[in-house]
Amino acid sequence: MTDIAQTRPASFSAPSPRIERVPLVLFLALAAAPVLAPLSGAEGYVLSLLTRVMILGLAAMSLDLILGYGAMVSFGHAAFLGIGGYAVGILASHGVEDALVQIPVALAVSALFAAVTGAISLRTKGVYFIMITLAFGQMLYFLATSLAAYGGDDGMTLSARSVVAGAPLLKDDRAFYGITFVCLLGTYLFSRAVVASRFGRVLRGAKENPIRMEAIGFQPFRFQLLAYVISGMMAGLAGFLLANQAEFISPSFMTWQRSGELIFMVILGGLGTLHGAILGAAAFLLLEEFLPELLHLAGFMLSADLQARLVDNWKMVFGPLLILIVLFARGGIMGLLGRARPERREV
């Protein structure tokens, strides 16, 4: 079997040192947050917000693995968030509250669902793949709404966060933040290793030209399916963390709207960068969190009535603003950072 040529095309330009430092700066900032949070005077709020950023950043990164490197546009990716969350809720309702049991169950069920649905979905291409992943996601959503024993449409509240080997480590917000950070960093490094491996080169080759990959002896379907399973397991882990962070699980975790948000986060950060997905999630959530306050400040010249309407309907500003960012910031946040570097003059 012939390996893939690793030579770079003539048009290839090495990434700037600034771009290469982005992951290091990003993770150092997240690691320093618990130390700096008390200085804000709202430590609990800051840690809660950044924890949610990391969890959805993990989910977006899992999608970027198949979207950015495999051109698989999954519109049902939030289903894996729901699987991870319901693994926590259902097991906890039956007295199994240990994360050392819940996490393997969440990963196993996510892998099984990804393997079955991926084996079917990957036999289609383009818009058909998008629609069939959407259909599978909605199927799981309606299944969750029908589970009356586990809250149905209203969802279910967790009595407490999961324990770790009997110890309530996740109960403390700082400890939970640290565990979430370790999960994010670990999955990021794992994803980087996958992309850089022979498996990752085949996956990228199948994205560019699947017929050529078959001609040199590879079967893209197998590699794409395995990538889909890995991506689903990563999102299942994010679902486990999200359920514990919110101490609540509901079918809303797996709606097509949430899948659309994850796709938007990936595009906003920059396709095929992994850490760009985390930046995209951070930008999306922080903008969503602070836009109403910014609109309130920006509307000081308006009457009180118009100002109140502007703040109440902040989503009417949020949507077009995100669309403008995507349209004019080609390559997302990572693209902007790449273009911001100074050009070197040849002497």
Automatic annotation (TrEMBL):
Gene Ontology cellular-component terms listed: plasma membrane
GO terms, molecular function: branched-chain amino acid transmembrane transporter activity
Membrane-protein topology: Multi-pass membrane protein
PANTHER family the record matches: ABC TRANSPORTER ATP-BINDING PROTEIN, HIGH-AFFINITY BRANCHED-CHAIN AMINO ACID TRANSPORT SYSTEM PERMEASE
CDD domains for the chain: TM_PBP1_LivM_like (cd06581)
Superkingdom of source: Bacteria
Keywords in alphabetical order: Cell membrane, Membrane, Transmembrane, Transmembrane helix
Protein localization: Cell membrane
Protein name, as recorded: Branched-chain amino acid ABC transporter permease
Residue spans crossing the bilayer: 21-39, 45-67, 74-93, 99-120, 127-150, 175-200, 221-242, 262-287, 294-311, 317-337
